[in-house]
Specification:
Strand content: under 5%
Structural class: mainly alpha
Number of helices: 2
Shape: globular
Length: 58
Amino acid sequence: MTTTTPKGIATAVACLMADHGFAFVEDDRVDALAATLEAFLAAAGLPVNPPQPDEDED
């Protein structure tokens, strides 16, 4: 079972951006993207659920 974490979300965002030709995020920059996403959510006052096990895995 895996758990969705800020780094996992950042990896998914990085893949999405690359898939759409928007930007390519090098692996060594994913932690920075995760920190940026967390800072955005905090600054925007958006609530974040605690990490949860991925639903598609048993």
